[in-house]
């Protein structure tokens, strides 16, 4: 089995992105699966093109994308991606779409194809705070979550994909008083636990993971 794991380059004025830094530090093999690591640009459309090319090249069974969600206190495994681009800030090439669909012929939303709740539980068993998220925002992270599912459904049937958001690194919060953060070591531990679950669990568990707001 092969798992393609992607991480974004720095964006929004940050000198580092914990997404690609944590992906780089993952083991080369997790639960018997080969881990393929890929840096992707924080750019609408181009990010999906890079992933599409990697899927064609490596033929992974699963694709896990990782992105920074500065301000979130824990590891959040995304449940759903929505068909909208609405950039709060421009991407790394200066493009800032407003209320545009990711794919004109796509459905309103795609569910993650990964065992989201089981991944959360296994991350927590590893001693790292985690929860299910029902919004991946409307920036490039959601673009990739939704877009990879669309690509898989149309070009690579049977391949599973999903998305995890991670907090700021501790070093990113030196001038962000009161901001939540997490060590790189903890993020790597969490991602490893998540991938172990992806590889070994075929059907998600039935536990509560919802929110009231």
What is the SS-derived class? alpha/beta
Give the strand content: 15-25%
User: Would you report the number of β strands?
Assistant: 9
What is the first-to-last residue Cα distance? 38 Å
- Using the CA coordinates, give the radius of gyration: 16 Å
Would you list the SSEs in sequence order as H and E?
A: EHEEHEEEEHEHEH
Classify the oligomer. Answer: single chain
Order of strands, main sheet, comes to 2-3-1-4-9-5-8
Helix content: 25-40%
Note poorly predicted spans: none
Number of helices: 5
What overall geometry do the principal axes of the alpha carbons give? globular
Average pLDDT score:
97
Report on the biggest sheet: 7 strands, mixed
Topology readout:
Elements: E1 2-8, H1 18-24, E2 29-30, E3 33-40, H2 46-58, E4 62-68, E5 75-78, E6 80-82, E7 109-111, H3 116-125, E8 130-133, H4 140-155, E9 160-166, H5 184-200
Parallel strand pairs: 1-3, 1-4, 4-9, 5-8
Antiparallel strand pairs: 2-3, 5-9, 6-7
Helix pairs in contact: 1-5, 2-4, 3-5
Task: Describe, in plain words, how this protein is organized in 3D.
The protein contains five helices and nine strands. It has 213 residues and is α/β, with parallel strands linked by helices. The protein starts with a strand and ends in a 13-residue tail after the last helix. A hairpin with a 2-residue loop joins strand 2 and strand 3 (33-40). The model has no long low-confidence stretch (mean pLDDT 97). Helix 1 packs across helix 5 (184-200). The strands form two sheets. The chain has a seven-stranded mixed β-sheet, with helices on both faces. Strands 6-7 form a two-stranded antiparallel sheet.
């Amino acid at each position: 089995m092969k798992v393609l794991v992607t991480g974004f380059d720095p964006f929004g004025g940050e000198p580092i992105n914990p997404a690609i830094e944590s992906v780089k530090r993952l083991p080369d093999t997790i639960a018997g699966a080969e881990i393929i690591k890929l840096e992707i640009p924080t750019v609408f459309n181009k990010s999906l093109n890079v992933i599409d090319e990697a899927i064609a090249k490596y033929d992974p069974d699963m694709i896990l994308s990782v992105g920074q969600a500065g301000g979130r206190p824990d590891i959040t495994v995304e449940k759903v991606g929505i068909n909208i681009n609405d950039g709060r800030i421009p991407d790394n090439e200066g493009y800032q779409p407003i209320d545009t669909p990711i794919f004109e012929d796509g459905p309103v939303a795609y569910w993650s194809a990964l065992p989201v709740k089981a991944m959360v539980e296994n991350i927590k068993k590893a001693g790292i705070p985690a929860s299910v998220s029902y919004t991946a925002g409307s920036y490039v992270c959601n673009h990739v979550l939704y877009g990879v599912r669309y690509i898989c459904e149309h070009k690579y049937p049977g391949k599973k994909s999903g998305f995890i958001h991670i907090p700021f690194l501790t070093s990113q919060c030196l001038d962000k008083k009161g901001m939540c953060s997490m060590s790189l070591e903890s993020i790597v531990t969490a991602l490893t636990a998540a991938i172990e679950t992806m590889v070994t669990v075929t059907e998600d568990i039935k536990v509560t993971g919802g929110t009231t707001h």
